[in-house]
Design a protein that fits this description.
The chain is of the alpha/beta class. It folds into two domains: about 25-75, no CATH class; about 105-375, no CATH class. Helix content is about 35%, strand content about 20%. The protein is built from 13 helices and 15 strands. It has helices spanning about 10-30, 55-60, 60-75, 75-90, 115-130, 145-150, 165-175, 185-190, 205-220, 240-245, 345-350, 365, 370-375, and strands spanning about 40, 45, 95, 100, 105-110, 135-145, 180, 225-235, 250-260, 265, 275, 300-305, 310-315, 330-335, 355-360. Strands 7-6-15-13-14-12-10-11 form an eight-stranded mixed beta sheet, sandwiched between helices. It has a three-stranded antiparallel beta sheet with strand order 3-4-5. A two-stranded antiparallel ribbon has the order 1-2. The longest helix has 23 residues, at about 10-30.
């Protein structure tokens, strides 16, 4: 006799119904709420809804961007991501959320592949800019990342590029621009807190070591030897903690002020008063923004240092804690972040009587940046 199939247990039906309700509620919350435009945990802007086109659909970019948009606005995204990454870490994985889970509670941003097209364009633009302004001193300081200096803290057998070799290749391709090698100096101090364990930035002590190593290339002598050291936070958890879901090992943030009688004032692109240190940022998720208040298209620092030198500094956020260390050496410092600045640099050289140019990036950003060449393009002078 054929047995009749037994009915599904009521518990299974209840679980299925609950899961369906949860899915419906999450999707409703995802589309009905207004998500923040800035993802503080990852220190980036939220992805926006892509514009449809048949070309974008054909090459796959539309579906990729649509998926990123939905992921960024999903209700409870940060909590789900943290749970996902914490489970992966508990299972013994060496990476989570694009972050290596290193030794000594150290987190490492997994380096991005070199964008050779963008890198070649940037190096060519730097060389061309130096050729147009041969009367200026041009220096490139490309800082190695923690994966290079703290390689002994990486998980065993974690694949990382040889940044020292990559940086040497950059140095070999520069013409008219002096490459300041700071890697050896940082390696000599690798037992010190040169990088944040929970964030991809270097620390202010590392910036000071880099300045001392780069000083000959920058034409700086008689450097300030004494600094006031202020610990302004001991609760900093950076973007790598958020990406990986690994929390509980906060960092300290130090401010170093050169001991001199040089005074300064800082203005933003609109000429409004700004600051080297924005203490209000210490009450936010992105505490590293205490330096300069974060990233801006253009920041101008004018000092009472009577050196006759004016610096044009092209930068990423590694320069934010570095810039205050430069105030004793230049009468004026222009900080240009090409990611947000849309004019050309030739006009700045002419208008401000620039004498020195410095490129200050971390290696991972420099190898993938697609904006520097646009800022360095030759100025078009109307006939």
């Amino acid at each position: 006799m054929q047995r009749k199939p037994s009915p599904k247990p009521k518990a299974v039906l209840w679980v299925t119904a609950l899961l369906l309700c949860l899915i419906l509620l999450l999707n409703a919350a995802t589309f009905l709420r207004t998500p923040p435009s800035f993802l503080a945990g990852e220190n980036r802007m939220r992805a926006t809804a892509p514009a449809f086109s048949w070309q974008a659909l054909a090459d796959g970019s539309y579906t990729r961007n649509l998926s990123a948009w939905f992921s960024d606005r999903f209700a409870g995204r940060d909590n789900w991501l943290a749970l996902h990454n914490a489970l992966h870490a508990a299972m013994g994985q060496r990476d989570s959320g694009g972050v290596y889970l290193g030794k000594n509670d150290t987190l490492f941003l997994i380096p991005s592949p070199v964008n050779e097209t963008a890198l070649s364009a940037n190096l060519a633009a730097m060389n061309a800019f130096a050729a147009r302004h041969k009367d200026l001193r041009h220096t490139a300081l490309i800082a190695p990342n923690a994966v290079c200096v703290w390689a002994d803290r990486l998980p065993d057998h974690a694949p990382v590029p040889d940044q020292q070799a990559q940086l040497q290749q950059v140095a070999d391709r520069l013409q008219g621009v002096t490459f300041a090698n700071v890697t050896d100096a940082l390696l000599a101090h690798k037992q010190e807190d040169l990088y944040y364990r929970t964030d991809h930035h270097w620390t202010t002590p590392a910036a000071r070591i880099a300045l001392e190593a780069a000083a000959p290339a920058m034409g700086l002598d008689r450097l300030v030897s004494e600094y006031d050291d202020y610990t302004v936070s001991q609760t900093f958890e950076g973007t790598l903690a958020s990406k990986s879901g690994r929390h509980g090992t906060p960092d300290a943030i130090h401010i170093l002020l050169p001991k001199t009688d040089v005074r300064y004032n800082v203005t933003d692109p609109n000429g409004e008063k700004a600051t080297l240190f924005d203490r209000a940022k210490l009450d936010t998720k992105d505490q590293y923004a205490v330096f300069l208040g974060g990233n801006h298209p253009l920041v101008t620092i004018k000092t009472t240092a009577q050196t006759g030198r004016r610096l044009l500094l092209f930068k990423d956020s590694y320069a934010n804690c570095f810039a205050p260390l430069l105030t004793p050496y230049y009468e004026e410092i222009l900080l240009v972040d090409p990611r947000y600045y849309y004019d050309t640099a030739d006009a700045l050289v002419r208008q401000h009587g620039i004498t020195d140019v410095l490129y200050l990036y971390n290696a991972d950003t420099f190898f993938t940046d697609t904006t520097l060449a646009d800022v360095l393009v030759a100025e078009t002078v109307p006939e």
